[in-house]
Design brief:
single chain, 199 residues, mainly alpha, 8 helices
Length: 199
């Protein structure tokens, strides 16, 4: 259960859910309630499929390019740190999208790169390489899928959340999540350096 909750929480924060929610609301401001619900479901399915592909096949990508897990930890942590800085400063890009055809937005840009950005891709591949047994992979996969589903539920009920929290509330929460992401990225980098130097 510890692995499940740990993976769930890390993945939830890495996907920057409240930033994603603010982008989703911006993209769908002219859409009907039904269109928003349909798009939220499609985005959730797209993100789950993308996450599982990166999780299960990340190790093969490592071996093809001759990249060590610790080198990738350092790189992924650095990218994640940049995402955290952008969230805190309020400069994270992703809202420049055309809402003329909502269905076309489900995979690009909402699933990739807004929800699953470079930092999340890197962390997913690190997760996949770090799970040593089939049971760890299964539990870790469940944690990731549940994190995506929670984000999907947030998108599904985006109107209710927006009314309850407001635009400024979403921005404040995004900045707080940015702080957590900065700490998480630092931990990933430090782990990579420690293992690389055999400390």
């Amino acid at each position: 259960m510890e692995l499940f909750f740990s993976t769930f929480l890390k993945m939830f924060f890495i996907m920057t859910p409240f930033f994603v929610l603010s982008v989703f609301l911006t993209v769908t401001k002219e859409a009907t309630e039904k269109e928003k619900h349909t798009l939220a479901v499609k985005v959730t399915i797209s993100v789950i499929i993308t996450c599982l592909i990166l999780l299960f096949f990340g190790q093969h990508i490592f071996s093809i390019f001759g990249i060590t897990l610790d080198a990738f930890r350092i790189g992924a942590g650095a990218l994640l740190f940049l995402t955290a800085v952008d969230l805190i400063r309020g400069t994270k890009d992703g809202q420049k999208v055309d809402a003329s055809n909502l269905n076309e937005l489900a995979v690009v840009p909402l699933a990739l790169p807004i929800i699953i950005g470079p930092g999340a891709i890197g962390v997913l591949m690190v997760f996949g390489a770090g799970f040593q047994t089939a049971s760890q992979m299964f539990v870790g996969s469940l944690g990731i899928v549940f994190a995506v589903i929670v984000v999907g539920i947030m998108l599904y009920f985006s109107n209710i959340i927006n009314k309850a929290v407001g635009k400024q509330g979403l921005q404040i929460i995004s900045k707080i999540i940015g702080l957590f992401l900065a700490a998480l990225s630092a931990q990933i980098v430090f782990t990579g350096i420690k293992n690389f130097l055999s400390l």
